[in-house]
């Protein structure tokens, strides 16, 4: 490759040596992600506030963005609750170790289905059978690092950054299906501060973005937090079982 003219002469850059090439997965990026994953996996219970946006690509090719916020509570190995508010949703999701319940606050409808007995299997079942998708749920697995790295072909440490005034380490990952970035809090509590996913296989490459705040690593979470109790005017409906859909109608996992 020719460099720019300098002093009226052209100069060819020397070929890059193999020893000068950076590894596809930079060790620092891998180590920081693994540190965050191990830290999250070791938290027996926690709560966190999330604020994010989901891009939708219209048939015209125009992108529109929908914002949302969620209060998430986790108690390992078999409890999860998420209260979500936004332009397109106003719902509560409960997993109590035996059942899933999704409750729509606006119309007072709820649906309940049997669930596996641990959080990892429950996340998979919610996605595959019920179509309940939350990309950031990858961070809730018992081994987040393995899940996050499944499709990764390269990883880069981009350097220090700041999210909402919190010092973070900025990492970027490339995959066959998705590209994603994560900002991890610097210091002894390496929790995620921001997560961005770009779906490369979807027309228009829409993005999912979520920021995390108000981490509480020692909340008081009783069993009642994860148990749904219908109110007087609530009506039960059925989930549509996506596992029985034809291959043409099933969506991608991510």
Automatic annotation (TrEMBL):
Keywords annotated in UniProt: Signal
Biased composition (Basic and acidic residues): 13-28
Entries under Gene3D superfamilies matching the protein: Lipoprotein localisation LolA/LolB/LppX
Domain of life from the UniProt record: Bacteria
Region (Disordered): 1-28, 234-254
SUPFAM superfamilies membership: Prokaryotic lipoproteins and lipoprotein localization factors
Name of the featured protein: DUF2092 domain-containing protein
Naturally occurring in which organism (per UniProt): Archangium lansingense
Lineage: Bacteria, Pseudomonadati, Myxococcota, Myxococcia, Myxococcales
């Amino acid at each position: 490759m020719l460099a720019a003219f300098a002093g009226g002469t052209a100069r060819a850059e020397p070929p890059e040596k193999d020893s000068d090439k950076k590894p596809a997965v930079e060790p620092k990026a891998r180590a920081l992600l693994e540190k965050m994953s191990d830290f999250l996996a070791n938290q027996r219970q926690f709560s966190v506030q999330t604020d994010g946006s989901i891009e939708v690509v219209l048939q015209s090719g125009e992108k529109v963005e929908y914002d949302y916020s969620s209060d998430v509570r986790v108690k390992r190995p078999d409890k999860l609750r998420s209260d979500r508010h936004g332009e397109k949703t106003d719902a509560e999701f409960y997993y109590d170790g035996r059942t899933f319940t999704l409750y729509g606050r606006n119309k007072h409808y709820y649906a309940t289905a049997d669930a596996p007995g641990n959080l990892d299997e429950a996340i998979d079942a919610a996605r595959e059978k019920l179509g309940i998708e939350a990309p950031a749920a990858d961070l809730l697995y018992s081994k987040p690092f393995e899940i996050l790295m499944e499709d990764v072909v390269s990883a880069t440490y981009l350097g220090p950054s700041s999210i909402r005034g919190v010092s973070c380490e900025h990492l970027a990952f490339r995959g066959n299906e998705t590209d994603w970035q994560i900002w991890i809090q610097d210091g002894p509590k390496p929790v995620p501060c921001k997560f961005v996913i770009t779906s490369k296989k979807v027309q228009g490459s829409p993005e999912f973005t979520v920021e995390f705040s108000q981490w509480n690593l020692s909340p008081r979470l009783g069993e009642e937090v994860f148990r749904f109790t219908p109110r007087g005017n609530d009506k039960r409906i059925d989930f549509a079982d996506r596992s029985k859909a034809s291959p043409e109608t099933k969506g991608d996992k991510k």
